[in-house]
């Protein structure tokens, strides 16, 4: 017998019971791992090695690894990590880390973790991945693997030889010719050489990498094609100390059978021929252009082949007849040799190369992004000013050169002269920029047509600062399509953004970015036209602006190493870096020299980079010893001081002494970080001495007032925190008075331009700081805008260079005050940071984004009636202290409660609402 169960309708109670059972079962399933509760929702992205995405040129023994994370949850962070490094992707897939398995490390650190595995080898590729444990200790998946490749680590790895063209021009005559140059333009030189080498490949190529340096600059071709879009490469260094090489991937350019490599060289900074006041034509490294090239080919069967620059290469004069970083370039297309960089070329008539000693400097892989054409601009206006002469206005001041697309009869020469201004009668005016170079040719390119069709050309090894170009020798008409302006600079990524409701401030921000970018062509420069020099003061003043707006880590690290290279054994630093030897006794002083301390310190604050501190520290100690010899009873009387002031002059000893004090404080913090407590105490003791001397020297003993209370002096005493704390309130009020009662409003130079807005803001007068920036009154940033500036200028009047970055801290002020984002020294690199926006009257909204190692910090606020809406994004694995005005506030529509949804703390202190927030997006209503 078997029983049959018939379906019958369930009672209401039975149905409820069934549903409950089902729900419990579902809940059980979801908790029991079938939906994998054991894997965190935390997602790892962007694995970087030494700040770069899959780099192929790492030469650090312990490269530093970083990653970013994203999450749907609020308040998410990392509690532990595990890194795996393997020699092949397959091993990594199987989680077999044959080189390094860090094991589970209980740490929130997710940036700059030094590799700590087996020894890394030249030219090898390493694969890595990471998994992390989230705030609740739940592990994530392993990240999508990334890799890095080592460059050549040892001197012995280099088999190639430096080669140059045979010498034609007599070097004795060369020097004389350079000196004669003002009358004898241009300084004569040989046509620049081409080099070639052909070789045969008879196996399948797995990988091919060229390790190459060509000085001053080089272009590499493989089988006729130019490798990479780099220009002005490698980056400028003191070649007697450091020489950079690049690693270029040729894998897809090589083929079975005959192959050819071609190299074109430019003089660059290596073989300067202009007669400038900084003596670059007599630099210790000066020599004929030279190249070192080592091509390493690996075949699929595991065998290898090298192609090395040596006596077997051939050379010939190329079409570049003249090239100078400051004077310009002449290209004679009639001298082009068809097929010179291709296989099958008949190299009869090509000459033997010379094997040369090459530069003295240590070879290092170039770690900074190369200079590239970052933008192309069309002419805004073309005016004919003579029979064959035109003025082209690109509407924007910039660094770069023109690109020509045109046809012309064989042998026709056109010239391009570059400038920032026109004379009142519309002619090109180089007067404000050509005064320090003694050649009659300056910022001038020439092109000679080969004829027979459309020709495209831009200079290769030279660049200019310009907005206007005079084109002469052109039988019109000149059309828009014939010329574009190529804007070039070091290709660092833009990682910040500032925008607001006031067009004037947006234009000031844009002008600052144009100047910052134009003034970073391999090194930070003062101006892209007149000097192109790495003035240390300009760079340190603009460094926070750089760090807010761009990913500057490797570019600044490299330049700090350049400063270290430039230092003399007694600790003295030159005003420009790199230098030919000029500028040690020019009087730059502490406000300039402090780049050696300030930039590493800012890299620590903004990026969390400690290695640069360790690298710079020995030089910093040497420098401070040197600086102590310049101080008399604690006062440093040496230095340029507040350069390019509006009207009031501030004694240089006041600002120089304050910089000395600041240097000592920075050095003491560095000593603490490096575990040198005795040195820390010594620096602090010295700093206290200097502070006492400053307060004694610059304040009246009876009244306690600053003796010479210029805006810069007041700002300096406050900003540098060197005035006794008992005086600060009064000083701040005095500074406010000085600004508000001055018919000038703003009255300072480049140092005051940093101190005054920052000091006013720090001491409760953000409104006053805002008013001196948000105005078109003379003098000021807004006044430049009103007068048509598209970049920042060298002085308030606009009499000198029109593209200088030294007044450029204003952009950092926007981020720190209007968006309100600032780093926290106690938790550097924005692991923890502060947000305190200033809801300035007259501003309707502000958007500020700061890219960090952890992800983007995003602040957007807008006013609507009496309400303010503030939207914040805080990256995973970071926290932020948010300071807001008193009053009721809602977060995501609710009254904030500590411990809820990413809100770590909520309190009311010092008349402000203080929130401590974890990662996530928050909508706050005030
Ligand atoms: C440069 C400046 C620099 C200054 C120092 C000038 O010629 O252009 O930007 O800082 O000299 O004296």
Automatic annotation (TrEMBL):
Any Pfam family hit: Bac_rhamnosid_N
Domain Alpha-L-rhamnosidase six-hairpin glycosidase: 494-818
InterPro entries with a match to the protein in the record: 6-hairpin_glycosidase_sf, 6hp_glycosidase-like_sf, Alpha_rhamnosid, Bac_rhamnosid6H, Bac_rhamnosid_C, Bac_rhamnosid_N, Galactose-bd-like_sf, Ig-like_fold
SUPFAM superfamilies with a match to the protein in the record: Galactose-binding domain-like, Six-hairpin glycosidases
Keywords: Glycosidase, Hydrolase
Swiss-Prot/TrEMBL catalytic activity: Hydrolysis of terminal non-reducing alpha-L-rhamnose residues in alpha-L-rhamnosides
Domain Alpha-L-rhamnosidase concanavalin-like: 384-489
Enzyme class, spelled out: hydrolase
GO BP, one annotated term: carbohydrate metabolic process
Sequence ranges assigned to domain Alpha-L-rhamnosidase C-terminal in this UniProt record: 820-887
Protein name: alpha-L-rhamnosidase
Species classification: unclassified sequences, metagenomes, ecological metagenomes
């Amino acid at each position: 017998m078997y029983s049959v169960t018939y379906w019958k309708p369930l009672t209401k109670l039975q149905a409820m019971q069934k549903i409950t059972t089902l729900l419990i079962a579902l809940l059980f399933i979801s908790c029991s791992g079938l939906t994998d509760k054991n894997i965190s929702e935390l997602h790892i992205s962007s694995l970087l090695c030494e700040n770069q995405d899959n780099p192929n040129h790492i030469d650090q023994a312990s490269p530093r690894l970083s990653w970013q994370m994203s999450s749907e949850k609020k308040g998410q962070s990392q509690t532990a990590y595990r890194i795996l490094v393997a020699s092949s992707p397959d091993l990594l897939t199987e989680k077999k880390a044959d080189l390094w398995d860090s094991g589970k490390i209980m740490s929130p650190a997710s940036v700059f973790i030094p590799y700590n595995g087996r020894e890394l080898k030249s030219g090898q590729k390493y694969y890595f991945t990471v998994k992390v444990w989230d705030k609740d200790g739940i592990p994530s998946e392993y990240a999508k693997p990334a890799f890095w490749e080592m460059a050549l680590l040892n001197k012995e790895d280099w088999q190639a030889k430096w080669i140059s063209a045979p010498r034609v021009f007599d070097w004795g005559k060369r020097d004389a010719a350079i000196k004669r140059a003002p009358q004898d333009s241009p300084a004569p030189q040989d046509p620049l050489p081409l080099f070639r080498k052909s070789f045969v490949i008879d196996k399948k190529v797995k990988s091919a990498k060229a390790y190459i340096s060509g000085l001053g600059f080089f272009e590499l071709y493989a089988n006729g094609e130019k490798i990479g879009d780099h220009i002005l490469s490698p980056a400028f260094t003191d070649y007697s100390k450091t020489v950079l090489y690049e690693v270029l991937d040729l894998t897809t350019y090589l083929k079975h059978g005959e192959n050819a490599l071609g190299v074109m060289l430019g003089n660059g900074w290596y073989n300067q021929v202009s007669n400038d006041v900084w003596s670059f034509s007599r630099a210790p490294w000066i020599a004929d252009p030279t190249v070192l090239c080592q091509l390493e080919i690996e075949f699929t069967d595991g065998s290898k082949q090298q192609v090395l620059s040596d006596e077997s290469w051939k050379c010939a004069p190329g079409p570049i007849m003249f090239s100078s970083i400051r004077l310009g370039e002449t290209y004679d297309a009639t001298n082009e040799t068809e097929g010179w960089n291709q296989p099958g070329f008949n190299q009869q008539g090509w000459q033997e190369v010379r094997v040369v000693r090459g530069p003295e400097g240590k070879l290092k892989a170039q770690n900074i992004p190369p200079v590239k054409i970052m933008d192309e601009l069309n002419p805004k206006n073309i005016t004919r000013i003579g029979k064959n002469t035109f003025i082209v206005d690109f509407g924007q001041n910039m660094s770069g050169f023109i690109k020509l697309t045109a046809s012309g009869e064989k042998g026709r020469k056109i010239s391009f002269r570059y400038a920032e201004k026109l004379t009142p009668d519309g002619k090109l005016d180089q007067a404000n920029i050509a005064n320090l170079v003694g050649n009659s040719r300056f910022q001038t390119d020439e092109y000679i047509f080969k004829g027979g069709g459309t020709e495209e050309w831009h200079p290769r090894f030279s660049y200019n600062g310009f907005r206007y170009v005079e084109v002469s020798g052109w039988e019109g008409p000149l059309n828009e399509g014939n010329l574009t302006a190529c804007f070039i600079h070091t290709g660092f990524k833009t990682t910040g953004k500032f925008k607001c409701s006031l067009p004037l401030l947006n234009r000031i921000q844009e002008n600052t970015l144009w100047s910052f970018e134009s003034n970073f062509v391999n090194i930070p420069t003062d101006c892209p036209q007149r000097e192109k020099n790495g003035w240390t003061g300009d760079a340190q003043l603009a460094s926070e602006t750089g760090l807010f707006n761009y990913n500057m880590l490797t570019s600044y690290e490299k330049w700090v190493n350049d400063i270290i290279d430039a230092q003399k054994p007694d600790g003295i630093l030159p005003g420009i870096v790199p230098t030919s030897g000029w500028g040690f006794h020019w009087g730059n002083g502490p406000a300039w020299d402090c780049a050696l301390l300030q930039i590493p310190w800012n890299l620590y604050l903004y990026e969390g980079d400690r290695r640069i501190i360790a690298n710079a520290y020995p030089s910093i100690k040497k420098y401070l010893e040197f600086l102590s010899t310049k101080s008399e009873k604690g006062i440093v009387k040496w230095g340029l001081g507040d350069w390019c002031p509006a009207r009031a002059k501030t004694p240089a000893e006041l600002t120089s002494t304050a910089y000395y004090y600041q240097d000592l404080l920075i050095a003491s913090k560095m000593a603490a970080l490096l575990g040198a407590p005795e040195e820390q105490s010594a620096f602090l003791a010295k700093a206290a001495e200097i502070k006492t001397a400053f307060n004694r020297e610059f304040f009246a003993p009876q009244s306690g007032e600053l003796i010479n209370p210029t805006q810069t002096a007041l700002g300096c005493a406050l900003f540098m925190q060197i005035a006794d704390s008992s005086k600060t309130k009064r000083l701040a009020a005095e500074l406010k008075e000085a600004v508000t009662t001055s018919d000038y409003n703003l009255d300072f130079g480049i140092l005051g331009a940093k101190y005054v807005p920052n000091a006013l803001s720090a001491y409760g007068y953000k409104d006053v700081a805002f008013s001196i920036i948000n105005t078109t009154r003379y003098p000021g940033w807004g006044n430049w805008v009103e007068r048509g500036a598209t970049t920042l200028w060298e002085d308030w009047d606009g009499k000198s260079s029109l593209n200088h970055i030294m007044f450029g801290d204003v952009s950092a002020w926007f981020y720190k005050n209007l968006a309100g984002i600032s780093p926290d020294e106690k938790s550097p690199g924005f692991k923890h940071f502060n947000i305190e926006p200033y809801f300035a009257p007259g501003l309707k909204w502000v958007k500020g984004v700061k890219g960090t190692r952890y992800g983007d910090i995003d602040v957007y606020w807008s006013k609507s009636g009496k309400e303010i809406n503030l939207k914040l994004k805080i990256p995973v694995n970071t926290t932020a202290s948010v300071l807001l005005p008193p009053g009721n506030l809602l977060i995501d529509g609710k009254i904030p409660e500590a411990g809820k949804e990413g809100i770590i703390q909520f309190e009311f202190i010092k008349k402000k609402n203080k929130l401590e927030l974890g990662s996530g997006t928050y909508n706050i209503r005030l």
